Amino acid sequence: MSSPILSSSPVARIDEEELPFKLPPGPRSTDKPSWSYAALIGQAILASPQKKLSLNQIYIYISLAYPYYKRDAAGWRNSIRHNLSLNGSFVKMQREAGEKGKGSLWGIKEEDLECFQDGNF
């Protein structure tokens, strides 16, 4: 099965039923959100039933939930990678045997979950 989002084109068809996370209800503003990058990452991960996402899935969640962050813009993506690598609340996880996809997945340390309540950090 192909990914529901393969292009950075704004007209790319998105089937929300195929996304590995649940998007927050709209409407979605193009204004810059007040959340920190760590909070945005936490929102993405916690929106997944398995509470883990790939880096690309985190990018997709943020760009869909917060259209201010364009899918093809590099600056905010660098900040996401930086936060994942340096924030001790995020943990890199290996994929389960037979789990589809490339690369590692990212989750939140169980003891830090309360830090992300209500989308905060």
UniProtKB/TrEMBL annotation:
Residues 32-121 form the Fork-head domain. Gene3D superfamilies: Winged helix-like DNA-binding domain superfamily/Winged helix DNA-binding domain (1.10.10.10). Residues 1-31 are annotated as: Disordered. Pfam families: Forkhead. It comes from the Eukaryota. CDD domains: FH_FOX. Its main location: nucleus. InterPro entries: Fork_head_dom, FOX_domain-containing, TF_fork_head_CS_2, WH-like_DNA-bd_sf, WH_DNA-bd_sf. Residues 32-121 bind DNA. Keywords: DNA-binding, Nucleus. Residues 1-10 have a biased composition (Polar residues). GO terms for cellular component: nucleus. The keyword Cell membrane does not apply. It is found in: Nucleus. SUPFAM superfamilies: Winged helix' DNA-binding domain. The keyword Protease does not apply. One of its GO terms (molecular function) is RNA polymerase II cis-regulatory region sequence-specific DNA binding. PROSITE patterns: FORK_HEAD_2, FORK_HEAD_3. This is Fork-head domain-containing protein.
